[in-house]
Amino acid sequence: MSQPQTERSLFRAVVTDLHFWIPLTVLLGGFFLLDKLS
Amino acid sequence: MTASSGSVRAAAPAQSPVHATRLRSLQALGIFCGFAAGAWLGGAEAPIKLVNPDISPITVSFIMVLGVFLARWSVPAFIRGTWHLRNDVRQAPHLIVWAVLAGCMWAVANTLTIYAIRNVGLSIAFPLWNTNSLLGIFWGFLLFNELHYAGWKRWLGVLGGAVCMFGGATLLAIASSHQAAPGKAALGIFAALGAGILWGTMYIPYRKAYLTGMNPLSFITFFTIGELATMTVLAVAYRGAIPLWHELVGAREVLFWLMLGGFVWVLGDLFQQYATKYVGISRGIPLSNTNQLWGLLWGILVFHELRGAGQTVYAQVAGGSLLMALGAVAIALSSASEREHSSWQDAAQREGRRYRVEDEYVQAGMEGREMVRTEGTGRDLPRDRNTRTSLDWLLIFITTGLFAVLAFMARLPHIDISMGWAVVLTTAMLALLATCGITLWRTTRFR
Question: Which residues of B touch A3 (CB under 8 A)?
Fold first, then answer.
């Protein structure tokens, strides 16, 4: 049975998840593109 | 990632497979939701067409997002009550991060589309950002085991259907385009492609949430926080706080139509979320993209947009519509097999392990059923109920009151619209809302 996560372990699980970095990188790219367009 | 997920798979206890009959009914439900999403997402364009084009696109987008924000909190409060939200957060707190991230992506992508249309016109921009469904298929396959063990017929159905819909979307966009000759073409193409990549990648958080059992009604409430925060920052940054306020005050007669567009859009998006949950992103997203057909129906029948157009344009519309419909049917007929679904469960198990989500919560979410109460985990759930708290009624009351005030201030612009067709299309949308809503309730109780 899994146990609830503490804030620290939650943060760790998110930042070590490659899936998190894919959308985050794409989002930053979107901001960069918006900046170039404006 | 691959190595760790492999070890997780080996260590995890096997989850019981979803019963074949239940799987078929969930797949059919997801496909139905995808078609309903197309109708409501397309219908959301109708109120926006009533708005004076002099208002800045950023401000239009910002006002719509205000309507979206209200809808994303009041609709879940009305359907199930925000009580469920607390349970979802207790079970899977990591999903707040994912939902807010997805909301931020949506807002940036939506703003990019404004620049794309301005620089290259709708005919080029729309098909470019419509590639989001192809990217969705790619991420679904790569990250979430979608289309694994699917067999070549299902692959052909999904990929061929998506390509077919892309071709149809291109024809429709060309036919419905009335844009001037493009300037700054490269920037416009980059903006459209950027929007497609952002939207296509936004489905990673969607799938992540639904594989770990989250309810779409909970996901959208956090999604909209990212959406509203990003859109507010963008609107203030591009327009300035004082000019933005003046523009909002000046647009008070059309606020209702824009916020109504946002509200209608949320209902469509909600169906899209359920489609994503039950048939995955590789099938749910292309089906939702049939919104272009509905937008075109509103444009042609209600707003007389192609009046006086040549035979070529009508041929493009007929061909594009047929291609889109064929693509959607091909995808609808390629629902996941039991074997493919078991590989989705592998992905769900991996996510559950990583974020320490209770097995029963994940399994119940995948099966669209109530979670069985467990003891001693520290996260015990009370029995399911659909009672609403005073907070829920307050949300519903505020939203209804605000829309009533805005409707009182609103003016219908003097444009040529066919009320008869508007009634027909609205009735069709409401019929889809009712039938799909009832089916969702009967099959999953909106889980």
Answer: 356, 377-378
Task: Quote the DSSP letter at residue B369.
Answer: S
Contact B99, B219 (CB under 8 A): yes
Are B204 and A22 in contact (CB < 8 Å)? yes
Whether A30 and B194 lie within 8 Å, measured CB to CB: yes
Task: List the single residue in B with minimal CA-CA distance to A31.
Answer: B108
User: Quick check: B97 and A14 CB within 8 A?
Assistant: yes
* Domain boundaries, position A25: 7-37
- Cα A13 from chain centroid? 11
Residues 273-332 of B with CB under 8 A from A: none
Say whether B356 and A29 touch across the interface (CB within 8 A). no
The reply to whether A1 falls in a domain is: no
CA–CA distances in Å: residue B6 to residues A15, B211, B215: 19, 17, 27
In a domain, A18, yes or no: yes
Q: Is B194 helix (H, G, I), strand (E, B) or coil?
A: helix
In angstroms, the separation between the Cα of residue B251 and the nearest Cα of chain A is 23
Residues of B in contact with A19 (CB under 8 A): 1, 143, 204, 208
**Structure-token match 């493919």, residue found:** B340
- State yes or no: ipTM above 0.95: no
B317 alpha-carbon distance from chain centroid: 24
Q: Are A5 and B356 within 8 A, CB to CB?
A: yes
Residue B137 Cα to chain centre, angstroms: 15
In a domain, A15, yes or no: yes
Residue B205: list chain A partners with CB under 8 A.
Answer: 23
- Note whether residue A14 is domain-resident: yes
Residues in chain A: 38
pLDDT tens, chain B, 447 aa long = 333 333 333 334 445 566 788 888 999 999 999 999 999 998 887 887 777 667 887 888 899 899 999 999 999 999 888 888 888 888 888 889 999 999 999 999 988 988 887 777 766 777 778 788 888 889 998 999 888 888 888 888 888 888 888 888 888 777 766 544 455 678 888 888 899 999 999 999 988 988 888 889 999 999 999 999 999 999 999 889 999 999 899 888 889 988 998 899 899 999 999 999 999 888 888 888 888 888 888 888 888 877 777 788 888 888 888 888 888 888 878 888 888 888 888 898 898 888 888 888 888 888 888 877 655 554 445 455 567 888 999 999 999 999 999 999 988 777 788 999 999 999 999 999 999 999 999 999 888
Q: Write down the domain spans for chain B.
A: 18-149+178-308+337-369+392-444
Domain count of the fold of chain A: 1
pTM: 0.86
Chain A residue numbers with beta carbons less than 8 Å from the beta carbon of B234 are 34
* Cβ neighbour number for residue B167 with a 10 Å cutoff: 17
Q: Tell me whether residues A34 and B108 touch, CB distance under 8 A.
A: yes
